[in-house]
Amino acid sequence: MIKGLLEVVRRYLAHHADATGLAQTPIPGLTTIRSTTPSSLEYSISRPLACLVLQGKKQVTMGTQTLTFEAGDSLLITADVPIVSQVLQASVETPYMSLVMDLDPAVITELTLEMHADAAAEGAAVRFQPTDTEVADAALRLMQLLDRPESVSVLHKQRVRELHYWLLAGRHGAAIRRLGYPDGHEQRIARAVTLLRAEFTRPLPVERLAAVAGMSPSSFYQHFRNVTSLSPLQFQKQLRLIEARRLMMAEGVSASSAAFAVGYESVSQFSREYRRMFSQPPARDAEAMKHRLQN
């Protein structure tokens, strides 16, 4: 079934991939990815998702945990966490390809109740397992809707729900169920993360974030760190630095302009923190990235 899914994804990417190898589908939350070369390190703060690797090999690091996975594996991320990723194996003849489905907490809540599933224990926010046959089969049926565009608006919700069901029923089920409890720590922290993502350029006192999560400041701080591996301030700082890097790479913005755009008041502080995260000063990093893209 992975082979059939690979061919459908390959065909879709051939017609719809952008210059970076991404092809967002008309189905909300469903993305296909292709890379024809091994990549440099890519920094992001991921949302909860399931990534089905169809060809090639990739590595993801969160904190001290590094995972290497390949064709036939599924990567699961169950919280908004900072990750560093890198495509390890890809070529023009055999590109890296994957299918990514954002996990929908509302669908997970509904299915968890209907399945009468027990509450899940705490566990790592990033993990991988071999892809279940039923998951690959459901993903293939979802992708096949794209061959009949008129069917997408009518059928995509039930097929997205089916994919979530098989994820919950399979190897990843216990980890995914944690996203389905509205009063669970993951969902409370997710509400604060939504605010951080929306207003990361502004000062955000921990008291305000804790109130959004419905927790005391001390309890919020502890649970935020347990879920995301960062303090709220570190999380906000990474959001700022990742966006500043995007502005410099994609829009040609200067380092000082990027610093002010994401909320820094001091360019020197921005440069120090940028170098600490990306291992190079902003201008040198931007120049190196430009050189890699040209080659």
UniProtKB/TrEMBL annotation:
The keyword Transport does not apply. It comes from Alloalcanivorax balearicus MACL04. Residues 190-288 form the HTH araC/xylS-type domain. PANTHER family: ARAC-FAMILY TRANSCRIPTIONAL REGULATOR, TRANSCRIPTIONAL REGULATORY PROTEIN. This is AraC family transcriptional regulator. The keyword Transferase does not apply. Gene3D superfamilies: Homeodomain-like (1.10.10.60). It holds the Pfam family AraC_N. Keywords: Transcription, Transcription regulation. PROSITE patterns: HTH_ARAC_FAMILY_2. InterPro entries: Homeodomain-like_sf (IPR009057), HTH_AraC (IPR018060), Tscrpt_reg_HTH_AraC_N (IPR009594). It comes from the Bacteria.
